[in-house]
Amino acid sequence: MAWASIVAVLSSVLIFSAFSPGCSLSLNYYDKTCPHAESIIANAVKNAVSRDKTVPAALLRMHFHDCFIRGCDASLLLNSKGSNKAEKDGPPNRSVHAFYVIDNAKKELEAWCPGVVSCADILALAARDAVALSGGPSWDVPKGRKDGRTSKASETTTMPAPAFSISQLQQSFSQRGLSMDDLVALSGGHTLGFSHCSSFQNRIRSFNATHDIDPSINPSFAASLRGVCPKNSKAKNAGATMDPSSTTFDNTYYRLILQGKGLFSSDQALLNTPKTKDLVHKFASSQEAFNKAFVNSMIKMSSITGGQEIRKDCRVVN
Fold it and tell me: Which amino acid positions bind Ca(2+) 1, per UniProt (predicted)?
């Protein structure tokens, strides 16, 4: 545990020195300089989604993973260069995909208004459009983020992990200025997408010295997961959808947790404190309450800023 707490302290120092919540964002940031910015980004997302239904989950995850390292500065989009391994090559990000959607939007924006719209803003807007196109809420995204110049794979170890306990989740979110309410609402993003077996394997085999299977998991659900993730299987794409309606933004995720069918330990852990449990019940019974909370928490998370420039190409610093 000593090592974990050293990592936590180091990561909180890193986080607070890298983020600058003082950077003011505004809803009308591009009204004069690039009035078509939002529609250009929306079209890029819409075109990609029409060909690939997994794009919304990918973009939402990409934005979340970007914001949690150095603030929402598009550092996740940078390619590794020379001896520097970038965030996108860190373990939690190796399965992040659909970077081309951001590239396509950026290319179009550079043709209309060169050097104006940051990659970080493109990603924040694309995540919003992804949710809306999946049947979820839409919202006004504050804009004016700058792009970061630093991207290190080593820093991705501070990402919240699928096996996190509720106290680890709370610490991770609070270091980024996010509350328990934000934690439960943003976890609802797991209504979209797919997970590889490696992210939940620990729950369905050799859980601990006493139990082979995590006692908090529904036994029939565990059996179905063991079926899709056979022991010692080397199948690269084996896994499970985050919930049965994995391309629709809804509140099924919370209802599944109440049935012991949360895919990750960190999902099921939301029942382990009275506050988070109450919120799971609230969101499970009201799509409207979930949508409202999710929007508020997305705006809060995506306002953690930290960049310095407007990149011409989202994959490389200027």
Answer: 66, 71, 73, 75, 87
